[in-house]
Design goal:
Elements lengths: L1 H22 L8 E3 L2 E5 L2 H12 L4 H15 L12 E4 L16 E4 L11 H18 L3 H8 L16 H12 L4 H13 L1 E2 L2 H14 L3 H7 L11 E2 L2 H17 L4 H13 L2 H12 L6 H6 L4 E2 L2 E5 L2 E5 L7 H10 L4 H4 L4 H21 L10 H4 L2 H7 L33 E2 L14 E5 L4 E4 L48 E5 L2 E7 L6 H13 L5 H6 L3 E2 L11 E2 L3 E5 L4 H9 L3 E5 L9 E5 L6 E5 L6 E4 L1
Parallel strand pairs: 10-16, 17-18
Antiparallel strand pairs: 1-20, 2-11, 2-21, 3-4, 3-12, 4-7, 5-6, 8-9, 9-13, 11-12, 13-14, 14-19, 15-17, 19-20
Helix pairs in contact: 2-3, 2-7, 3-6, 3-7, 4-5, 6-11, 7-10, 10-11, 14-16, 14-18
Amino acid sequence: MRRSLVAFIVLTLLWLSVPQLALRAQTFRPVVRGKRGVVAGGHPLSVEAGLRILQQGGNAVDAGVATILAASVIEFSHFSFGGEVPILIRLRGSSPAIGEGPGGKGVVVIEGMGQAPLKATRDFFVNRSTSKDQAAARAGVEMATMASAKSGIIPSTGPLAATVPAVLDACVTALDRFGTKSLAEVMQPAIELADGFPIDELRVQYIQTRKPVFSQWADAKRIFLPNGEPPKIGDIFVQADLARTLRAIVAAEKRGATKGRHEGLVSARDYFYKGPIAERIGEYMQHNGGLIAAEDFARFHAGVGMAVKADYHGYEIYKAGFWTQGPAMVETLNLLEVYDLKGMGHNSADYIHTLIESLKLALADRDRYYGDPNFTKIPAAELLSKDYAALRRPLIEKEHASLSQQPGDPLNMRATLAGLSERRGRESKVPVRERANDTTCVNVIDKDGNLFSATPSGAWLPAVVAGDTGVLMGQRLQSALTDPNSPNVVAPGKRPRITLTPTLVLRAGEPFMVLSTPGGDNQDQALLQVLLNIIEFGMSPQEAVEAARFDTQHYVSSFDDHEFLPGSLNLESRIAEKTIAELKARGHKVTVQSAWGTLSSPTVIVYNPQTGVSSAGADPRRGRYAVAW
């Protein structure tokens, strides 16, 4: 009897443990939680920089800027100091008086995107392509290469692809308006990393695979190929020129700070944009086939702009403006809000089809209407209105995938633009999966619930190094077009529309979530899925970033040759075979990727205002990291 009782108790305990195990999330990494602050980003040494600043008493803005600057040194495969970084900030308890649009509840945008050089005219790139086409014809080059030259595509690498570096100005602006620390304090980890850090496998791989491109520029070759060869994994990788530049900027701040913190920050900024650094970069670029001059640096300043907002099921989702692709998420959420997404089932055929078809409509509007608002009149209110979404929603056919681009007519409040059935961009049947394998992400929430979300990008390898400054120059001008009818046509002093799209979420006006990701045009698609994984399906942050994802390339690519892949649908192989078959039956042109094959890789932090606990998830697909205190 006693033996039977013992066996019964053991079996009961085992049985009770089964549902607990079943309910426990099976993720590669645990959720990272803390009460004093959480920092998430693309490299452990980048996020350590932000955590260090939190531990020194800084707020989320101070920590976020430190993380960006550290990443600009150590994550050069995806982002560096000569790039760009849009930032969303919300200080808890702030009022709408600090610069955002109506109803913004204290959410502001640091517009960290540099402008095209004054010499970057459309005629320059069109004429350049024509002359290259003629030279190719004389040399007997293949017709495919000649066709590419005729299209007037702006180069994706080299001196001609560079815009004005925006990182330092964006960071200084954020610190000046919303931070508490000096630039010297938040830049110190970056300086230490520039003095030398143990290089990892990913960075070595990038140097090896891109060696044929960047090695044509002497200063890039000198830095990234010490002794003529790529560094070995674990070697101490030194960027002495960049370290010297960063120290000079800090020294300029110290000189100006005798008159106050603000004056010190302005002095540091001016040393880079109006002083010797701008002059040396401009001279180098002008002598090496580029268009940027010192005058372009002097004209640039990162503004504090207005966020756009989606109200979705009690959540307020904020994005940067129409100079980014961020408003496309707002349009998509407006389309989706009437559907019972949870009832469809996560990653069911209905769910994937509905999201993809909504995204196609939003991205068609992106390609038709989005661009630098300083140069382009954008029907912003109409594009983001619920009424416009209601007009567009019937275009989503439940059983059929759309194969055409369908921009709407927001000015006349019509579902489609009359007489327009167009495909801007070069149609292709073969996806380019290596496209836009760049960018990183930075998200921070501090002990007070202050929110910081950024998407640093640009100046990734292969990149031109601007002489002895050590500054890698960006490639973002490739995202502009030479189509004179596009709102994103290249023009002097104009920002190309960018894919970078940080995200900030409030719930009932209280801080709730920040998230961002690398992934080019895929970014808002990935972030939408992570967002819905949390607010519709109740996933933890780590479950949300690890869940199987999907994306379409049914848009005009923002990179390279600006391809358009009608009807494309990329699915990770973890999605059920039955679901894949159903999507094919609806007409989607399906490509099944590996189980973890998408190029996006978000981090997300969720805040509980009742407990003060922040919980973070970091996608293992491309080595994201989160740390808590």
